[in-house]
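User: My collaborator and I are trying to settle a disagreement about how two of our proteins should look. Neither of us wants to argue from intuition anymore, so we agreed to look at predicted structures for both before our next call. Could you fold the first one, then the second, and keep them clearly separated?

Assistant: That sounds like a sensible way to settle it. I'll keep them separate. The first protein:
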Amino acid sequence: MTSMTDTRPSSTAPPKRRLRNYLLDSRFQLKYTGYVVTVTLLVASVLGAIAYQFSVEQTEQLTITAAMYPDLHPEVAEDLEGWSRAQDRRVLFAIVGGVALLTLVLAVTGILVTHKIVGPAYKMKLLLNRVARGKLSLSGRLRQGDELQDVFEAFANMVEALREEQAREVRELDAAIDEMREAGTPDGVLAHVVEVRDRMQSALD
């Protein structure tokens, strides 16, 4: 009787993630991240422009108000206007810096989030190719926090069902081969049956 090999995801510690492995499907991940970053940049730029325009209008209003007081010392008026202009520049720098930081954070977040989808999909594609080559076994498991856990579990159940069915057929072949040998069937006649049996067994190893 052939022993069954467990095809369930193993409980060994997950492999360490490396930076170069986060872009498994760069086309999809960068496209998705680009969409998110572009939309955010547009919204943030519009809001930033409104905030900066408001600051400039406040400066202009302050300048007009100062001009309405002829007794105001010129140096005081100049210092007041210079301070207002400096505030405008601070607002502008804060907006530009905030938008740049937001873009960077969103880009990194987008790659990390898509990696949790692309990573499992990539692993399942490799496993599907392995099954297509006749190997009815799974190696490794999805990492904690990855998406598509239910899909991977369904895939593992499918492979387990295929293994059980093939193991049953191997046992039946073993019994048939034993019966044929007891009946005196020449080994040359049994060779093809034994070859098929061994090939089916190799898919389970």
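The second protein, kept apart from the first:
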Amino acid sequence: MRTHTLSVLVENKPGVLAHVAGLFSRRAFNITALSVGPTSDPKVSRMTIVVDGDSTPVDQVHKQLEKLVRVLKVTELEPEEAIERELALIKVRVNPDLRAELLDVATSFRASVVDLNPDTIVLEAVCSPGRLDALLTQLARHGTCELVRTGMIAISRGGETITDDMDSAPPELALTH
């Protein structure tokens, strides 16, 4: 499956997420992952939207997003030109005989132990989605009993920013660097 990552700057106003989700829903496009958060400008939020390129016409999605009133900018991030991260909290059942092995796996993936008790260990992992999948595969034999993933966030490598060329934004939302 070829995924596409869209970085979308939107006005930080109520209902914007519903409008974006509605666009996908109306066209029966699937969102693989969605993360939304504030930017350094309190008037602007950033959405990271991951879609399946095999079943979703990404060019059409890009154009439709740009037509939405509260969308300021849409950029597709190429995997080799982006830093991608995901946060996960993973609760794993603990077999006392395998506790050391479990902790070694966590250490090798730079996962932190955030809760430890006789029956379970909760790990926090921040890494690329592929590395997170590899960690989950390693933990599967221990009995993962609960998993929470944030969805991917991404930012472009190098000096360019999504806020470059924001001349088309309304003056009250023009971003400063």
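Some points you might bring to the call about the second protein. DSSP finds four helices and nine strands in the chain. The chain has a mean pLDDT of 89.
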